[in-house]
Amino acid sequence: MEFGIFGSLQDDQVRILKKRLEDKNCKVTVIDFKEFPSKVRIYFNEEKIIFEGKNLFDMNGFYVRQLGYFWPVPHIKLTKEQWMKYYERYNDLLLNERENLSFKHSMIRILNYEKLVVNPYDSFMYHRMKPYQYYLFHKHNLPIPPFFAGDAHHITEKCNVANMVYKPLAGGAEVIMANDFLKKNKEIIEKRAVLFQEYIKGENIRVFLAEDEFIGAGKILQGPQVDSRAEQYGVEVVDLPEDIKEIAFKALEIVGMKFSGVDFMLSKDGEYYLLECNPSPMFYVFEQWSGIKVSEKLAEYLIRHGKQ
Predict the structure, then answer these.
(1) How far is 163 from 9, CA to CA, in rounded Å?
(2) CA-CA distances (angstroms) from residue 94 to 39, 73, 100?
(3) pLDDT tens for each residue of 105-154
(4) Integer Cα distance of 152 and 242 in angstroms
(5) Pairing state of beta strands 202-210 and 27-31?
(6) Can you tell me the distance from the alpha carbon of 39 to that of 36, in angstroms, rounded to the nearest whole number?
(7) What is the pTM of this model?
(8) Average pLDDT, stretch 209-215?
(9) What pLDDT sits at residue 148?
(10) Using CA atoms, how far apart are residues 198 and 178, in angstroms rounded to an integer?
(11) Domain chopping of the chain, boundaries
(12) How far apart are CA 91 and CA 95, in angstroms?
């Protein structure tokens, strides 16, 4: 069998998944868009997608680790001096990237139609639309911490945010207590929508699963920060209750993912709260710390479901 991985060989997740597949006698092609179209050659029409002379329709499936950003504006901050220096180049970049985004995202959707793609293109948008993800979970009666999204002034008038955290709606920034965010960002809140969610004090539980198999779960050992990503130093393997496993599988189905790292908070009262499903979770370090072979199970899933 033959598989493609969208991402970079500098990424630990890409390297270990590639090795797992190759250990099972599969061929693997890593498709890195960073040098497209200057050095990497890709084209497609209504019948084929050619990457460096190889038809991707001949492969059995794909894992999407990274496509770059999904929004039409690059994630870059420019100083005033940089803006003046690169003004014309930046405008060119915006136009070029709009066209490149259309190409890349059209290609992934076509592959999704023809072959196994983990995860499907549409599921990646949930990572950038966290309030919508929460809404869907709530509509399906899954336990989430209550949230408010909108303008900060209106939210603070309507509710007490003292026991709430600020989360970036589209990801990419640290989760902190809501009041701390408001104090530090008085100018920003005049221009930007915010997301506040009830703070659940307890333990962060990361769960890995494929749509047809529970892989494992671990408690993230972290520092005192609200955001567990700020300081992690280990994983303690835990036995997840069967009803919480069912919630994780249901969440995966709701957002249309085939594989995910699902985050829960376990409160001091023993209640589990669903936080989110990640379409492209980091699993290399989790695997090293926990001994749970996430990459092995992901490779097995691809082989089980790869299309001829």
Answers:
(1) 42
(2) 20, 7, 10
(3) 899 999 999 999 999 888 888 888 899 999 999 999 999 998 988 887 77
(4) 38
(5) unpaired
(6) 6
(7) 0.86
(8) 97
(9) 82
(10) 9
(11) 2-118, 146-198, 200-305
(12) 7
State phi, psi for 302 to the nearest 5 degrees.
-60, -40
Domain spanning 200-305, CATH architecture: 2-Layer Sandwich (3.30)
Residue 259 CA neighbour count, 13 Å, CB half = 23
**How do strand 61-64 and strand 2-6 relate by DSSP bridges?**
parallel
Residue 31 predicted with pLDDT over 70: yes
* SS3 sequence of 247-282: HHHHHHHHCCCCEEEEEEEEECCCCEEEEEEECCCC
pLDDT band at 67, cuts 50/70/90? confident
Tokens of 102: 């259309």
User: Pick from 275, 183, 164, 188: which is nearest to 228 by CA?
Assistant: 275
Between 37-46, 81-90, 112-121, 272-281, the lowest mean confidence (pLDDT) is in 81-90
Q: Answer yes or no: are the C-beta atoms of 119 and 184 closer than 8 Å.
A: no
Whether 179 and 159 have beta carbons less than 8 Å apart is answered as: no
Query: Tokens 């494992």 — which residue?
Result: 216
